[in-house]
Specification:
single chain, alpha+beta, about 425 residues, 7-stranded mixed sheet, about 25% strand, 20 strands, globular, 10 helices
Length: about 425
């Protein structure tokens, strides 16, 4: 499958700031923000060639709308610095967003979207060098366009980024913003006195307690990125009670361990607290379960689904998030993070599933139509894998699934579940008429 061997040339770089002046001030990160390591998240949208717009006119629309959107979403125009306690803090100074224009000598239909390591990473999704958010807009050989962003995860989760992306698109079409973000940090203040369940000591870990990172070794099973699509017919036919349960079983089966009764396989699930509908920044938790590899291999799918329900049950409550806030407060200023992020192959495989089923790709229309594909791209730098299913742009009920897993896990899934996870292709996305 080709489409990875192409050159991207950046023709212009500039900084886009909010159209209105912003009073400079410091915005503290919440305790939930402080659980995130300094990692960047990528998101991209592929558009077919518009009929009546030039690339230059599209760039003008995007920059003008971005400057307007940054008035309300001013954290994206700031920068993260360390405060006197050594903790990250957001300086809202309207430094602006790095904005790049580029050209790629490849047609949209020839992009190897199945393998983003070849086609997306470091080519179409920008590497953020300064600030909180970077944008790259790339014109393709066929006249199609890729709009891509990279943002600091400590400042926004996917839910917050989605609000911004939709508002940016609404501004581009001269529509009023459908939602205004809230930065009311007091909603996430720790309690006094604080209180948390001791189970959080197993879910989160101070960074000083982490084992030293393993030095790369020849033959290591490295993490790679792949995109698949899953049809609604296959989901129905295989009677999958849960994509998560099926993946946990697949990852366990792919493991090559000396003692499958002792070695474990961990799976985490990103849980989003939605009690604050328009709150901007991070309100998430990553509880996880752990079972022996042999159990996951031998037990039926319903048992695995019950195991997921068991570890999620206590994590979807308001009390869980309040306890998480208090746990961070009790350990500050010591930096900490979700334990599964640093869980690798020492005692067995580990991965996290984050549902992108509410990803509003169809609403990110800047005035030249809905994207042919929109997706997050998140090789997050941890030792654990990461999976995100998102709604397909082609058919209701189908999924596009982003996987950041090891080579061995990917090969096992492609062998044992090829009828379910099919490589994302231009044929499936109907890109043959993109030129």
């Amino acid at each position: 499958m080709g489409g990875g061997d192409f050159t991207v040339t950046v023709s212009r770089k500039e900084v886009v700031a909010a159209v209105l002046p912003v009073q400079e001030y410091w915005l503290p990160l919440s305790n939930l923000d402080l659980l995130l390591p300094p990692v960047d998240v990528g998101v991209f949208f592929c558009y077919k060639k518009p009929h009546d717009l030039t690339f230059g006119s599209m760039i003008g629309v995007l920059k003008e709308a971005l400057a307007q959107a940054l008035v309300s979403y001013y954290p994206f125009a700031g920068e993260v610095l360390s405060n006197s306690a050594g903790e990250p803090e957001l300086l809202c100074n309207n430094r602006g967003v790095d904005f790049m224009e580029a050209y790629a000598d490849v047609q949209l239909q020839n992009l190897n979207l199945y393998n983003p390591d070849e086609s997306i990473e470091s080519k179409l999704v920008p590497k953020k060098k300064h600030g909180v958010l970077s944008v790259q807009v790339t014109e393709l050989k066929c006249g199609g366009v890729v709009v891509a962003c990279t943002f600091d995860h400590r400042i926004a989760d996917a839910y917050s980024a989605n609000m911004f992306l939709v508002s940016w698109a609404e501004m581009a079409q001269s529509k009023p913003s459908s939602v205004l973000p809230s930065f009311r940090r007091s909603l996430l203040n720790p309690r006094c006195p604080g209180s948390y369940d001791l189970s959080l000591d197993d879910m989160c870990i101070p960074m000083s307690a982490l084992p030293p990172p393993k030095a790369p070794q020849p033959g290591d099973d490295l993490l790679i990125n792949r995109f698949y699509y899953v049809t609604t017919e296959q989901l129905s036919r295989t009677k999958l009670e849960s994509l998560n349960a099926f993946l946990w079983k697949m990852v366990a089966k792919s493991a090559v361990m000396e003692d499958e009764n002792q070695n474990i396989c961990k799976m985490g699930t990103v849980v989003k607290e939605t009690m604050i509908a328009s709150y901007f920044e991070n309100v998430l938790s990553i509880p996880f379960g752990k079972k022996t590899i042999n159990e996951l291999k031998e037990k039926p799918l319903s048992w695995v689904a019950d195991a997921i329900h068991e570890y999620l049950e206590g994590a979807v409550t308001k009390e869980h998030f309040l306890g998480l806030i208090d746990w961070v407060e009790a350990h500050r200023p010591e930096p900490a993070l979700a334990k599964i992020y640093s869980s690798g192959s020492r005692d067995g495989p580990a991965f996290v599933v984050s549902s992108g089923q509410r990803f509003p790709a169809s609403r990110v229309d800047f005035g030249w139509g809905m994207p042919a594909l929109g997706s997050y791209h998140f090789p997050w730098g941890g030792e654990a894998g990461y999976v995100m299913p998102m709604p397909s742009p082609v058919r209701d009920g189908d999924w596009v699934v982003y996987m950041h897993l090891s080579v061995g896990q990917i090969e096992w899934i492609e062998t044992e579940a090829a009828h379910i996870f099919r490589p994302l292709s231009s044929e499936y996305l109907n890109l043959s008429n993109s030129d």
